[in-house]
Amino acid sequence: MARGSDDERELAALEIRLKTMLPELYQDRCDDVRPVSMGSAGLKFGADGKVAWNQMWASFCDLAMAGGPPHKGTLLEPASQAEIDADPDGYDRVVHEICRGVRMVTELPVQPSPVPGWVRVGCLSESMASWLMRAIVMENVSARTSGATLDLPAGPHYRLEKEIKNVVTVIAKTSHYLLAHMSRPQQKKVAALFETMAIDMPLIVPALLDDDVMNDRVRGLADRMAEAVVRETELRASPHRCVGWLGVECPTVAVAIWMMRALVASNVISRREGTVLCVPVNPVSDADGSVVGRRLASVQRLTPTLASK
Predict the structure, then answer these.
(1) Which CATH number characterizes residue 251's domain?
(2) Predicted structure pTM score
(3) Strand partners for 237
(4) Looking at the DSSP assignment, which residues form a beta bridge with residue 258?
(5) How far does the chain reach from its first CA to its final CA, in angstroms?
(6) N or C: which end of the chain has fewer CB within 10 A?
(7) Number of neighbouring beta carbons within 10 Å of residue 170
Protein backbone atom coordinates (compact mmCIF):
# COMPACT_ATOMS: atom_id res chain seq x y z
CA MET A 1 0.00 0.00 0.00
CA ALA A 2 1.24 3.52 -0.77
CA ARG A 3 3.14 5.38 1.90
CA GLY A 4 0.79 8.36 1.42
CA SER A 5 -2.24 6.29 2.38
CA ASP A 6 -0.48 5.00 5.49
CA ASP A 7 0.43 8.55 6.49
CA GLU A 8 -3.12 9.74 5.98
CA ARG A 9 -4.48 7.02 8.25
CA GLU A 10 -1.80 7.67 10.86
CA LEU A 11 -2.50 11.39 10.80
CA ALA A 12 -6.25 10.85 11.06
CA ALA A 13 -5.81 8.57 14.09
CA LEU A 14 -3.47 11.07 15.73
CA GLU A 15 -5.92 13.94 15.20
CA ILE A 16 -8.74 11.88 16.72
CA ARG A 17 -6.65 11.24 19.83
CA LEU A 18 -5.67 14.89 20.15
CA LYS A 19 -9.25 16.07 19.67
CA THR A 20 -10.39 13.65 22.35
CA MET A 21 -7.84 15.06 24.81
CA LEU A 22 -8.79 18.70 24.19
CA PRO A 23 -11.57 20.47 26.11
CA GLU A 24 -14.66 20.94 23.97
CA LEU A 25 -13.95 24.69 23.87
CA TYR A 26 -11.03 24.01 21.51
CA GLN A 27 -12.27 21.18 19.36
CA ASP A 28 -13.42 23.39 16.49
CA ARG A 29 -11.14 26.39 16.96
CA CYS A 30 -7.56 25.17 17.44
CA ASP A 31 -6.53 26.78 14.16
CA ASP A 32 -7.45 30.14 15.70
CA VAL A 33 -5.26 29.67 18.80
CA ARG A 34 -2.07 31.72 18.80
CA PRO A 35 0.94 31.31 21.13
CA VAL A 36 0.63 34.86 22.47
CA SER A 37 0.59 35.56 26.20
CA MET A 38 -2.08 37.73 27.86
CA GLY A 39 0.43 39.04 30.37
CA SER A 40 0.79 38.10 34.00
CA ALA A 41 -1.85 38.82 36.64
CA GLY A 42 -0.55 40.66 39.70
CA LEU A 43 -0.76 39.28 43.22
CA LYS A 44 -3.85 40.18 45.23
CA PHE A 45 -3.85 40.18 49.02
CA GLY A 46 -6.69 39.56 51.45
CA ALA A 47 -7.42 41.37 54.71
CA ASP A 48 -5.16 38.90 56.51
CA GLY A 49 -2.19 40.05 54.41
CA LYS A 50 -1.93 36.68 52.63
CA VAL A 51 -2.22 36.18 48.87
CA ALA A 52 -5.86 35.76 47.82
CA TRP A 53 -5.06 33.14 45.20
CA ASN A 54 -8.71 32.44 44.41
CA GLN A 55 -9.35 36.10 43.45
CA MET A 56 -6.53 36.64 40.98
CA TRP A 57 -7.83 35.41 37.64
CA ALA A 58 -10.95 36.27 35.65
CA SER A 59 -9.63 34.46 32.57
CA PHE A 60 -6.61 32.45 31.42
CA CYS A 61 -4.38 32.24 28.35
CA ASP A 62 -5.13 29.38 25.99
CA LEU A 63 -3.76 26.00 26.98
CA ALA A 64 -0.35 25.11 25.60
CA MET A 65 -2.00 21.77 24.79
CA ALA A 66 -4.24 23.65 22.35
CA GLY A 67 -1.35 25.64 20.85
CA GLY A 68 -1.38 28.57 23.27
CA PRO A 69 1.69 30.07 24.96
CA PRO A 70 3.32 27.93 27.66
CA HIS A 71 3.05 29.56 31.07
CA LYS A 72 6.84 29.58 31.47
CA GLY A 73 9.56 30.01 28.89
CA THR A 74 11.79 27.39 30.53
CA LEU A 75 11.08 24.41 32.76
CA LEU A 76 10.33 24.97 36.46
CA GLU A 77 11.93 22.04 38.29
CA PRO A 78 11.66 20.69 41.86
CA ALA A 79 14.46 21.31 44.32
CA SER A 80 17.10 18.67 44.91
CA GLN A 81 17.54 17.01 48.28
CA ALA A 82 20.74 19.01 48.81
CA GLU A 83 18.90 22.30 48.20
CA ILE A 84 16.16 21.29 50.64
CA ASP A 85 18.68 20.20 53.30
CA ALA A 86 20.45 23.56 52.98
CA ASP A 87 17.27 25.50 53.86
CA PRO A 88 14.60 23.25 55.44
CA ASP A 89 12.69 26.14 57.01
CA GLY A 90 12.50 27.96 53.69
CA TYR A 91 11.34 24.77 52.02
CA ASP A 92 8.58 24.26 54.59
CA ARG A 93 7.36 27.84 54.06
CA VAL A 94 7.21 27.39 50.28
CA VAL A 95 5.43 24.05 50.52
CA HIS A 96 2.88 25.51 52.95
CA GLU A 97 2.12 28.44 50.63
CA ILE A 98 1.85 26.28 47.52
CA CYS A 99 -0.49 23.91 49.33
CA ARG A 100 -2.59 26.84 50.54
CA GLY A 101 -2.77 28.30 47.03
CA VAL A 102 -3.60 25.01 45.31
CA ARG A 103 -6.31 24.30 47.87
CA MET A 104 -7.85 27.74 47.32
CA VAL A 105 -7.96 27.57 43.50
CA THR A 106 -8.95 23.91 43.09
CA GLU A 107 -10.67 22.87 46.36
CA LEU A 108 -8.73 19.61 46.05
CA PRO A 109 -6.85 17.99 48.94
CA VAL A 110 -3.14 18.87 48.88
CA GLN A 111 -0.24 18.16 51.20
CA PRO A 112 3.54 17.83 51.16
CA SER A 113 4.53 14.89 48.98
CA PRO A 114 6.43 12.01 50.60
CA VAL A 115 8.94 12.62 47.81
CA PRO A 116 11.09 15.69 48.63
CA GLY A 117 10.76 18.57 46.18
CA TRP A 118 7.05 18.11 45.52
CA VAL A 119 3.56 18.80 46.87
CA ARG A 120 0.87 16.18 46.32
CA VAL A 121 -2.62 16.96 45.00
CA GLY A 122 -5.42 14.44 45.34
CA CYS A 123 -7.38 14.35 42.07
CA LEU A 124 -10.90 13.06 41.46
CA SER A 125 -9.65 10.19 39.30
CA GLU A 126 -6.50 8.69 37.82
CA SER A 127 -7.43 10.05 34.39
CA MET A 128 -7.80 13.56 35.84
CA ALA A 129 -4.31 13.36 37.32
CA SER A 130 -2.93 12.04 34.02
CA TRP A 131 -4.58 14.78 31.96
CA LEU A 132 -3.42 17.52 34.32
CA MET A 133 0.14 16.17 34.28
CA ARG A 134 0.27 16.30 30.48
CA ALA A 135 -1.24 19.78 30.34
CA ILE A 136 0.99 21.18 33.11
CA VAL A 137 4.25 19.85 31.65
CA MET A 138 3.29 21.44 28.33
CA GLU A 139 3.12 24.72 30.29
CA ASN A 140 6.80 24.16 31.26
CA VAL A 141 6.14 23.30 34.89
CA SER A 142 7.30 19.90 36.16
CA ALA A 143 4.59 17.45 37.18
CA ARG A 144 4.33 13.72 37.90
CA THR A 145 1.58 11.29 38.82
CA SER A 146 1.00 8.20 40.90
CA GLY A 147 -2.48 6.79 40.50
CA ALA A 148 -4.99 9.55 41.24
CA THR A 149 -2.40 11.87 42.79
CA LEU A 150 -0.55 14.68 41.04
CA ASP A 151 2.79 16.03 42.26
CA LEU A 152 3.76 19.67 41.63
CA PRO A 153 7.26 21.09 42.21
CA ALA A 154 8.54 23.03 45.21
CA GLY A 155 11.87 24.37 46.43
CA PRO A 156 13.25 26.62 49.18
CA HIS A 157 14.42 29.14 46.57
CA TYR A 158 10.89 29.61 45.17
CA ARG A 159 9.71 33.23 45.41
CA LEU A 160 6.12 34.22 46.14
CA GLU A 161 5.68 36.43 43.06
CA LYS A 162 7.59 34.07 40.74
CA GLU A 163 7.89 30.30 41.20
CA ILE A 164 5.17 29.87 43.85
CA LYS A 165 2.82 31.89 41.67
CA ASN A 166 3.87 29.81 38.63
CA VAL A 167 2.82 26.58 40.34
CA VAL A 168 -0.51 27.92 41.61
CA THR A 169 -1.28 29.54 38.26
CA VAL A 170 -0.76 26.39 36.17
CA ILE A 171 -2.93 24.21 38.39
CA ALA A 172 -5.60 26.93 38.44
CA LYS A 173 -5.42 27.26 34.63
CA THR A 174 -5.39 23.58 33.73
CA SER A 175 -7.98 22.48 36.27
CA HIS A 176 -10.25 25.31 35.05
CA TYR A 177 -10.08 24.10 31.46
CA LEU A 178 -10.59 20.48 32.53
CA LEU A 179 -13.50 20.99 34.91
CA ALA A 180 -15.22 24.03 33.38
CA HIS A 181 -14.74 23.24 29.68
CA MET A 182 -14.82 19.45 29.54
CA SER A 183 -18.12 17.63 30.13
CA ARG A 184 -18.37 14.39 32.08
CA PRO A 185 -18.93 12.36 28.87
CA GLN A 186 -15.80 13.98 27.42
CA GLN A 187 -13.82 13.20 30.57
CA LYS A 188 -14.89 9.55 30.26
CA LYS A 189 -13.64 9.51 26.66
CA VAL A 190 -10.29 10.84 27.86
CA ALA A 191 -10.08 8.10 30.49
CA ALA A 192 -10.85 5.43 27.87
CA LEU A 193 -8.26 6.91 25.51
CA PHE A 194 -5.55 6.85 28.19
CA GLU A 195 -6.35 3.20 28.95
CA THR A 196 -6.12 2.27 25.26
CA MET A 197 -2.90 4.20 24.69
CA ALA A 198 -1.31 2.58 27.75
CA ILE A 199 -1.66 -0.77 25.96
CA ASP A 200 -0.80 0.28 22.40
CA MET A 201 1.87 2.88 23.17
CA PRO A 202 3.00 2.98 26.82
CA LEU A 203 3.55 6.43 28.27
CA ILE A 204 7.11 7.79 28.30
CA VAL A 205 7.92 10.47 30.88
CA PRO A 206 11.22 12.08 31.91
CA ALA A 207 13.34 10.05 34.31
CA LEU A 208 13.18 10.89 37.99
CA LEU A 209 16.58 12.19 38.99
CA ASP A 210 17.22 10.93 42.48
CA ASP A 211 20.93 10.12 42.57
CA ASP A 212 24.17 10.74 40.70
CA VAL A 213 24.16 7.28 39.12
CA MET A 214 20.74 7.84 37.53
CA ASN A 215 21.75 11.34 36.44
CA ASP A 216 24.80 9.94 34.65
CA ARG A 217 22.67 7.26 32.95
CA VAL A 218 20.20 9.90 31.79
CA ARG A 219 22.93 12.16 30.41
CA GLY A 220 24.57 9.26 28.58
CA LEU A 221 21.26 8.20 27.03
CA ALA A 222 20.52 11.80 26.02
CA ASP A 223 23.83 11.93 24.14
CA ARG A 224 23.01 8.73 22.26
CA MET A 225 19.49 9.93 21.47
CA ALA A 226 20.88 13.23 20.15
CA GLU A 227 23.07 11.29 17.71
CA ALA A 228 20.07 9.21 16.60
CA VAL A 229 17.94 12.31 16.00
CA VAL A 230 20.55 13.70 13.59
CA ARG A 231 20.97 10.32 11.90
CA GLU A 232 17.32 9.32 11.52
CA THR A 233 15.35 12.56 11.10
CA GLU A 234 15.63 15.89 9.34
CA LEU A 235 16.04 17.58 12.71
CA ARG A 236 19.04 18.31 14.91
CA ALA A 237 19.55 18.15 18.64
CA SER A 238 19.70 21.41 20.57
CA PRO A 239 22.97 22.25 22.36
CA HIS A 240 20.86 23.37 25.33
CA ARG A 241 20.35 20.46 27.75
CA CYS A 242 18.03 19.96 30.71
CA VAL A 243 18.60 16.74 32.64
CA GLY A 244 15.79 14.31 31.85
CA TRP A 245 15.04 16.00 28.53
CA LEU A 246 16.48 16.15 25.03
CA GLY A 247 15.97 19.35 23.06
CA VAL A 248 15.29 19.12 19.32
CA GLU A 249 15.56 22.16 17.07
CA CYS A 250 12.46 22.94 15.00
CA PRO A 251 12.40 25.42 12.09
CA THR A 252 9.49 27.48 13.48
CA VAL A 253 7.32 27.89 16.56
CA ALA A 254 4.38 26.46 14.58
CA VAL A 255 6.28 23.26 13.83
CA ALA A 256 7.41 22.95 17.47
CA ILE A 257 3.80 23.33 18.64
CA TRP A 258 2.48 20.74 16.20
CA MET A 259 5.15 18.21 17.04
CA MET A 260 4.72 18.73 20.79
CA ARG A 261 0.98 18.19 20.61
CA ALA A 262 1.34 15.22 18.26
CA LEU A 263 3.86 13.55 20.55
CA VAL A 264 1.63 14.01 23.61
CA ALA A 265 -1.19 12.45 21.58
CA SER A 266 1.27 9.58 20.95
CA ASN A 267 1.89 9.18 24.72
CA VAL A 268 5.29 10.86 24.80
CA ILE A 269 5.28 13.68 27.36
CA SER A 270 6.65 16.73 25.55
CA ARG A 271 6.95 20.47 25.88
CA ARG A 272 8.64 23.32 24.05
CA GLU A 273 10.89 26.28 24.79
CA GLY A 274 10.46 28.61 21.83
CA THR A 275 11.35 26.58 18.74
CA VAL A 276 13.03 23.82 20.77
CA LEU A 277 10.91 20.70 21.19
CA CYS A 278 11.78 18.87 24.42
CA VAL A 279 11.29 15.09 24.56
CA PRO A 280 11.78 12.81 27.58
CA VAL A 281 14.87 10.77 28.37
CA ASN A 282 14.17 7.72 30.54
CA PRO A 283 16.63 4.79 30.77
CA VAL A 284 14.08 2.77 32.75
CA SER A 285 11.00 2.87 30.49
CA ASP A 286 12.89 3.53 27.24
CA ALA A 287 16.32 2.03 27.83
CA ASP A 288 17.88 2.88 24.48
CA GLY A 289 15.65 5.83 23.54
CA SER A 290 14.21 3.90 20.59
CA VAL A 291 10.56 4.35 21.60
CA VAL A 292 10.86 8.13 21.74
CA GLY A 293 12.98 8.02 18.60
CA ARG A 294 10.38 6.09 16.59
CA ARG A 295 7.49 8.27 17.69
CA LEU A 296 9.53 11.42 17.05
CA ALA A 297 10.43 10.24 13.54
CA SER A 298 6.79 9.39 12.84
CA VAL A 299 5.55 12.78 14.00
CA GLN A 300 8.34 14.56 12.10
CA ARG A 301 7.28 12.76 8.92
CA LEU A 302 3.70 13.99 9.35
CA THR A 303 4.61 17.54 10.42
CA PRO A 304 4.59 19.22 6.95
CA THR A 305 1.00 18.07 6.50
CA LEU A 306 0.05 19.29 9.97
CA ALA A 307 1.85 22.60 9.67
CA SER A 308 0.17 23.39 6.34
CA LYS A 309 -3.33 23.28 7.81
Answers:
(1) 3.90.1150.10
(2) 0.93
(3) 248
(4) none
(5) 25
(6) N
(7) 26
